[in-house]
Structure of Transcriptional regulator:
Amino acid sequence: MYRLGVDTLVHGDALARFGYALSDSTRTQILLRLRTAPGYPSELAEQIGVSRQILSNHLACLRGCGLVVAVPEGRRARYELADPRIGRALDDLIGLVLAVDPSHCPTADSDGCC
C-alpha cells in the first residue's frame, strides 16, 4: 500500500490553497495587480470594480491562504504579496496557460473543468 509522505501532504495543501485563491476571478485580479506593485484596498476595489466590503472579504481570504500580507501605514494598510515568488509563479502560470491549446480543455458545461 502506498502512503503519502509528509512533504507530499504539505505541498498538496499549499497548492490547494493557491488553487482555491485562483478559483475566484476577484481574488485572481487582486493577485495579478499585487504581483506588479503593492496596493491599498480602496484603490484595488476601484480598479477591479467591486465594493470595498467585497474586496475586504477577498483580501481576508488571501491573507488566510498566506498569499498576501497587510503592511500597516498609519491609519491604513498596504497589501502586497507575502513572497515575491508568488508573483513569479503567477507569471509562469500565465505563460503556461497561454501556451496550452484551449481545444484540449473541455468546456465548463461539459464537466466543470475549465
Q: What stands out?
A: Residues 6-22 form the longest helix (17 residues).
